[in-house]
Specification:
Helices cover 49% and strands 6% of the residues. The protein is mainly α and 271 residues long. It has 2 domains: 90 residues, DNA polymerase, domain 1 (Orthogonal Bundle); 153 residues, Intergrase catalytic core (hpI Integrase, Chain A, Orthogonal Bundle), CATH 1.10.443.10. Strands 1-2-3 form a 3-stranded antiparallel beta sheet, with no helix packed on it. Strand 1 and strand 2 form a beta hairpin.
């Protein structure tokens, strides 16, 4: 059995169980992995065989590291679930660790970038900052998800990546953003809709965001990712505990390491 056959089975049986955005990334990574290792026998691969792949010159090193992570997951599945190979050779390959992003958007940058963004991107930015949710979850917000709670209305969400259910209190600020979403033409069941009606897609918001960033960079500003808005939300919240709860992390370590990007103010020892 060649690597390409293992990857085909992994794509067929495992990838569909992952979050939608993760599925798209894995399918794209699998194509590149087949080009490099598809005709190799996984039981004959040695750690040194992955050196040229990691050391390839040019852009894309971060993506290659992610691709090897997918291949390693596939090999682990082949060892422990399918019983097709004896060991995962990638366990002996040291992959460079990726440092978490540390780009912290300022309030002024957020406001200025939002001012030049198309209407739907602007609303998505506001929802991301106030709710702290991922782009993929924001476009899934429905009007029917707003329900009465013990202390007022709540926005009930289901995080696609973590499969965690949350109820976010509809504060006056969030209510004002939702009111602006309600003014979009051809309102449907989703909070954010396309110009012609229907749910705003990932591709639609991505193209709008890319346009916004091109204009932002052209004006001489430093670029940032849409996902950095989630980090801005976590950083602005009063405590690590509040940030962890709103972002839906199971561990405070993830919130602290990746999303709390502000200056840590500490007191020196008093002698």
């Amino acid at each position: 059995m060649m690597v390409s056959e293992l990857l085909d089975r992994y794509e067929r049986e495992v990838v569909p169980t992952l979050a939608t955005s993760t599925q798209k990334n894995y399918v794209r990574h699998i194509v590149h992995l087949k080009n490099w290792f598809g005709d190799r026998d996984p039981s004959e691969l040695k750690p040194k065989d992955f050196g040229p792949f990691l050391d390839k010159k040019g852009k894309g090193r971060v993506q290659r590291i992610k691709q090897l992570a997918v291949l390693s997951a596939c090999f682990t599945q082949a060892v422990s679930v399918w019983y097709l190979i004896e060991r995962n050779v990638l366990r002996d390959v040291k992959r460079p660790k990726q440092l978490p992003r540390d780009r912290l958007i300022t309030d002024e940058e957020f406001a200025a970038c939002k001012a030049i963004a198309p209407r739907r991107v602007r609303l998505a930015m506001e929802l991301a900052l106030v709710t702290g949710q991922r782009q993929g979850d924001i476009i899934n917000f429905k009007w029917s998800d707003i329900k009465a709670g013990a202390n007022g209305d709540e926005l009930h969400i289901y995080q696609a990546k973590t499969r965690k259910r949350m109820a976010i209190a509809v504060t006056p600020q969030l209510e004002a953003i939702l009111d602006r979403c309600c003014e979009l033409p051809k309102r449907g069941e989703y909070v954010l809709t396309k110009r012609g009606g229907g749910k705003l897609t990932s591709e639609g918001i991505r193209s709008g965001w890319q346009y916004t960033q091109r204009q932002w960079i052209k004006a001489g500003n430093s670029p940032f990712h849409f996902h950095d808005i989630r980090a801005l939300c976590a950083t602005k919240l009063g405590s690590l505990e509040l940030a962890q709860a709103l972002l839906g992390h199971s561990s405070p370590a993830m919130t602290r390491r990746v999303y709390r990007r502000g200056v840590e103010h500490v007191q020196p020892l008093q002698l």
